[in-house]
Design a protein that fits this description.
Strand content: 25-35%
Structural class: alpha/beta
Largest sheet: 7 strands, mixed
Order of helices and strands: EHEEHEEEHEHEEEEEHEEEEHHEEHHHHH
Shape: globular
CATH superfamily of one domain: FAD/NAD(P)-binding domain
Distance between the termini: 23 Å
Number of helices: 12
Strand order of the largest sheet: 6-5-14-15-16-13-17
CATH architecture of one domain: 3-Layer(bba) Sandwich
Helix content: 25-40%
Radius of gyration: 21 Å
């Protein structure tokens, strides 16, 4: 089949790799003028790493593996600790923190040079007589047998299917950076999550001397953006226990970027006819579980599996993909929205569940797809 993919981010490139390997003809359209090299680090859990391996992608030599996540109070007390290295021992795929640009490079490596057309902003999609047509801002069109909307939070494809207003702001936003910060944590494989009444902070080594750091604060789209955000963060979080003050002292405004959290209720059917969605286009969620990229990779894997089946109308296969993903991604989305990492009052979860129970729960949640992905190799 001839398949159009709108968006050349993690989801679009993963879908393209899988469909090309299955023998389909694929064309990718990206609104950016060139390959994106920005963004900070992402956490690829063992389930996401297994999907990448299935697509022929290795994360060797980039980022760093994460073996433990500690949740702390603002004054430095340990709330709970989660050992996640067991997933690598069981399945052979570690959890890794990796700069997003390196992940995109690995996904793009080996793809045909002319696969992606840049500076192509999708404006509308239509379908008729078993064909799908995308119209772009320059007036040009592209037609194929299927169309996959992988164009993210602001998806034009989703807007054509669902209309406006499906994605809503959540109550928090994140200031984040990826910086060469020389503290004891940076060369380790140890991820910190810290919460207090002022908000939440995450500190995650990302390899090559880089530290991914972020601060979650209450946010509304109507809020005025501070003129000196780093000064405000230092004022708000500077009295927290080490290493938070050291990170804030070493950070610079050039490293800093902001994004507000958004969420949409996942629909049981999110496509129509020969059009479907993957990743944030289908299920925008807050980043509190670190599952965005991983769930996008799962989408790509399940979509490829369904389209490999014979004997049905392709539109039927797209609905089967959505049906297969719905129970899992709707749960993940709800958990991300309600996750206690953003509670201002320290959560009770550390007292209610012992470390071993929490680790088991986390393993079951984050590694659901690892075993079947491995078996499919």
């Amino acid at each position: 089949m001839e398949i159009l993919v709108v968006g050349a981010g993690v989801g679009g490139l993963a879908v393209a790799r899988g469909l090309l390997a299955a023998g389909h003809r694929v064309r990718v359209y990206e609104q950016a003028p060139a390959r994106r090299t920005g963004g900070k680090a992402v956490l690829i859990w063992s389930n996401g790493n297994a999907v990448l391996n299935n697509l022929g992608i290795s994360l060797d030599g980039v980022g760093t593996h994460i073996d433990r996540i500690d949740a702390l109070t603002a004054d430095g007390r340990l709330r709970t600790s989660m050992n996640i290295a067991h997933a690598a021992d069981r399945y052979g795929f570690p959890t890794k923190a990796i700069p997003r640009r390196h992940l995109l490079e690995r996904l793009a490596d080996g793809l045909p040079d002319d696969l992606i057309r840049y500076d192509m902003s999708c404006r509308s999609v239509t379908q008729d007589n078993g064909r799908v047509t995308a119209t772009f801002s320059d007036g040009s069109t592209a037609t194929g047998d299927l169309l996959i909307g992988a164009d993210g939070h602001h998806s034009a494809v989703r807007r054509c299917l669902w209309g406006d207003g499906a994605v809503r702001p959540a109550t928090f936003g994140t200031w984040q950076g990826l910086s060469p910060i020389d503290i004891d944590l940076t060369p380790t494989h140890h991820h910190l999550m810290i919460t207090g009444r002022e908000g939440a902070c995450g500190l995650m080594p990302a390899g090559d001397g880089l530290l991914q750091w972020w601060f979650d604060v209450r946010w509304s789209p109507t809020d005025t953006r501070p003129t000196a955000p780093l000064t405000e963060l230092r004022h708000r979080f500077g009295r927290w226990a080490s290493p938070v003050p050291e990170v804030l002292a070493a950070a610079s405004e050039d490293d800093l970027e902001f994004f507000g959290h958004h969420w949409n209720k996942v629909r049981p059917v999110w496509g129509e006819g020969r059009i479907t969605l993957v990743g944030d286009a289908a299920h925008t969620m807050p980043p509190t579980l670190g599952q965005g990229a991983n769930q996008t990779l799962e989408d790509a894997w399940v979509l490829g599996r369904e389209l490999a089946k014979n004997g049905n109308d392709p539109a039927v296969r797209l609905r089967a993909y959505e049906k297969a993903r719905y129970p899992h991604i709707s749960l993940v989305s709800r958990l991300a929205k309600r996750n206690p990492a953003n509670w201002r009052i320290p959560p009770l979860i550390g007292r209610l569940f012992p470390e071993t129970s929490q680790t088991t729960m986390l393993a079951r949640f984050s590694n659901r797809l690892t075993a079947p992905a491995v078996q499919s190799l």
